[in-house]
Amino acid sequence: MTAGDYHRLPREGLDTLVALLVGRGWTVVGPVVRDGAIVLDEISGAGELPIGWTDEQDGGSYRLRRRDDEACFGHVVGPDSLKRFRLPPTLTVFSARRGPDGRITMERQEREPRRMAFLGVRSCDLHAMGILDGVLHSGAAPSASPDETLIISVQCGEAGGTCFCTSMGTGPRAESGFDLALTEVIEDGEHWFAIEVGTPTGAGLVADLPVRPATAEESQEAAQRPERAATQMGRTMETGDLRDLLMGNLEHPRWEDVAARCLSCGNCTMACPTCFCVEIADTGDPTGAEAEREQRWASCFTVDHAYLNGGSVRPTTHSRYRQWMTHKLATWWDQFDTSGCVGCGRCITWCPVGIDITAEVAAIRASDEQGNAS
Amino acid sequence: MSPETLLDPAHPLTPRMLPVLATRRETEDTFTVELDPGERLAFAPGQFMMLYAFGTGEAAISIAGDPAEAGRLVHTVRALGPTTQAICAVRPGEVVGVRGPFGRPWPVAGAEGGDVVIVAGGIGLAPLRPALLWILAHRERYARVTLLYGGRSPEQLLYGDELAAWRERDDLDVTVTVDVARADWRGRVGVVPALVASARIDPARTVAMVCGPEIMMRATASALTDRGVRAERIHLSLERNMQCAFGRCGHCQLGPTLICRDGPVFPYAQIAPWMRVWEL
Amino acid sequence: MRTLDALLGECPVFTGLDETTLELIAGCGRNVRFAAERHLFREGEPADTFYVLRHGVVNLEMRVPARRPLVIDTLHDGDVVGWSWLVPPYRWAFDARAAEPTAAVALDGACLRDKCREDPALGFELLQRFSQVMVERLQAARLRLLDVYGDPRVA
């Protein structure tokens, strides 16, 4: 089977799928409603999905709303992402002990490998995972996740209020990178899923599901969903010469403008599925007998992120916002040969003041083209 | 762990604890610490290690030792914070953690066949020392070799005996200056960049290696380009907040570059545009 | 024995001046020698004579009560010692002392000032050249003010 080759899975087939995965020892992580948001959590059955819920997203705004149908995936991405499964928010690197004779013993913390099945992964997040894996695999010490991973993607049928995956070339249709992809169809009183197979593992799963090949009409129904979503994007970003545009406008007055609004809270970096900065934190006990090193999520928005004996290289919000945006959209290319942004819109939604990265780019582009850039 | 490096690629954030062989006070706040790497350690001049003070923290410190002496790992450290203070306070028999070596080294091979001018300010002489020792050990591969070195005052100059020995050599042009001195100082008083104007170099075939406070490096690079040394042949060693040291944590970025991986040694032509952007 | 104007022409501050001008300036000059430790001039003295070093080392020093003198600059072959002859109140701001046996050309500042008044073009030329020296010394002094080798944790 190839992607785009659809099979039809009845609504209850989703329950079967989750039960199958759980039964085979997979930890299934999917979207759930909690604390007024749709977040990722371990589920034991398809009933725990956000059935009948959707999200309304805009700059600095996120609300859940009841749908008038029972869609399981009638929403887009929430504040968290698969990032924390690939790059844990905190991780103990080693614990060490110094004995009375001065000898030091170090205990490296090894992570137990898990079997993780991710359900409901959108195309933008699939791309984000690829980008993050690229970062983690780069350089002198490439690291691969010890986990066995299974991806069940969902093809978006509705775009979110802050989505711009089409601008970034990351969706809404997931073309590859999944074991299975689901397209939810609720039409003419029927509720079913079109299922695409991406890998032999996915094929193996489908073999145990109550599927039949989709008809031509059903296939068209399914294929239309992401096409429709592509026309509904909440935002757009012109990316043509973006790297050169931003690196050629490092002294643009717009940075001061956004700095006046930005709280330097770092929400964007926490919500972003590709931000990967970590801090290496060493601690010890007052007697000098024990020590520990932790790796923790960090944000370039903190003043001490760029601390250098005596002060910060980026003491102003101006320079820190510029660092974040130019890294994400421009210098990520220099470092990792790809954009760092997947157009998921999280940074726009979760910014307390609604700063919109697409609007910032447009503003710089506008005055640059008029030749007014400083 | 490969015997040639002290970095386990499978556990790149875990240091190896090495015994202290000796320490020596260079100035009031600067010490040279010698560690026993246990096995043959290969490093290139200009590379750095992450030194770990147990329970306190890590600091990126350039290797200051002789590349030919693989049985000792030498660093010159200035005590500026809890980690470096702890490292400066170690005694023989105690241990210091290390990870590395990291970074892009000085272009000692690329400089062969021409003149070399080494310009050091303050503790900037430490990262340049391995390059100078390498060049002196392969002296016949280079034409004229010049060392321009300066510090705040005579008491703050490093490597006193070795510096005196270098000055005795007739295959090495050494000029030392200090910012200010007492009248019993028998040497030059003035800033390091000002030494460039009268250095005996042929700009067309000179490679310059510069290390010191950033202001001093900028002024020196300016003086070198004023004399006609091309920006591609001037190399600086930069510093930023380093934590992982292998390009993973995101802290040491300067524009498109990661100082730990693309540097710390950079050709001035490559890095100058980024150095000029304020708070980049 | 080379002529004074030839010697002056070799010093960077006068390099490029034509033969006539160099002779004019040489007319205000004479060869001098200082033994080691001898002062060229002292702080507060009238700045009528300035020097262009041919060979040797001169320390610029400030004397501070209860402390040994501080050397704030050392000058070497080809360097100009002193520009206070050019600007009022024509007084030296520090001591200049030969650190080793030094040969120099002493130039009569008052004499040169008169010649510059008669020939403004010469005046402008010299002012430009000495301004260059001052700018370089000022820049170096500013670099030292920054205390680049100081403890970076101190704001």
Describe the structure.
The complex is a heterotrimer of chains A (374), B (280) and C (155). Chain A has 374 residues and is α+β, with helices and mostly antiparallel strands. Helix content of chain A is 30%, strand content 26%. Chain A folds into 2 domains: 7-90 and 111-230, no CATH class; 242-277 and 300-369, no CATH class. Chain A contains 12 helices and 16 strands. Chain B has 2 domains: 16-102, Elongation Factor Tu (Ef-tu), domain 3 (Beta Barrel), CATH 2.40.30.10; 115-237, Nucleotide-binding domain of ferredoxin-NADP reductase (FNR) module (Rossmann fold, 3-Layer(aba) Sandwich). Chain B has 6 helices and 16 strands. Chain C has helices at 4-9, 19-26, 109-118, 120-145; strands at 29-34, 39-41, 49-55, 58-62, 70-75, 80-81, 95-98, 102-108. The chains are: A alpha+beta (374), B alpha/beta (280), C alpha+beta (155). At the A-B interface, strand 6, strand 7, strand 13, strand 14 and strand 15 of A face strand 15 of B.
- Helix and strand run of chain A: EHEEEEHEEEHEHEEHEHHHHEEEEHHH
What is the CA-atom radius of gyration of chain C, in angstroms? 17 Å
Class from secondary-structure proportions of chain C? alpha+beta
End-to-end separation of chain A in angstroms reads 55 Å
**Main sheet of chain C, how many strands, which sense, barrel?**
4 strands, antiparallel
Q: Kindly provide the name of the CATH class of chain C.
A: Mainly Beta
**Based on the structure, what is the oligomeric state of the protein chains?**
heterotrimer
Average per-residue pLDDT of chain A, rounded, comes to: 94
Total strands of chain C: 8
- Sequence of strands across the biggest β-sheet of chain A: 3-2-8-9-10-11-1-12
How would you characterize the largest beta sheet of chain A?
A: 8 strands, mixed
Mean pLDDT of chain C: 90
Strand order of the largest sheet of chain C: 1-8-3-6
Please bin the fraction of helical residues of chain A: 25-40%
Task: Categorize the overall geometry of chain A.
Answer: globular
Summed up, the helix count of chain A is: 12
What is the fold-level CATH name, i.e. the topology of chain C? Jelly Rolls
CATH architecture of chain C: Sandwich
Based on DSSP secondary structure assignment, what is the total number of beta strands of chain A?
Answer: 16
Q: Which homologous superfamily in CATH is the superfamily of chain C?
A: Jelly Rolls
Q: Which parts of chain C are unreliable, with pLDDT below 50 for 5 consecutive residues or more?
A: none
